[in-house]
Amino acid sequence: MKALVFDLDGVIVNSEPLHMEALRRALAPLGVAVTVEEYYRTYVASTDREAVALALKGRPDQVARGVAEKERIFWELFRDHVQGFPDALALIERIPRGLPMALATGAAGAEAEHALRALGVRDRFVALVAAEDYDRGKPDPAPYRLAADRLGVLPRECLAIEDTREGIRAARGAGMVCVGVAHTHPPAHLIEADVVVRSLDEVDLDAVGQRFWPNGRRG
Question: 168 near 178, Cβ under 8 Å?
Answer without folding.
Answer: yes
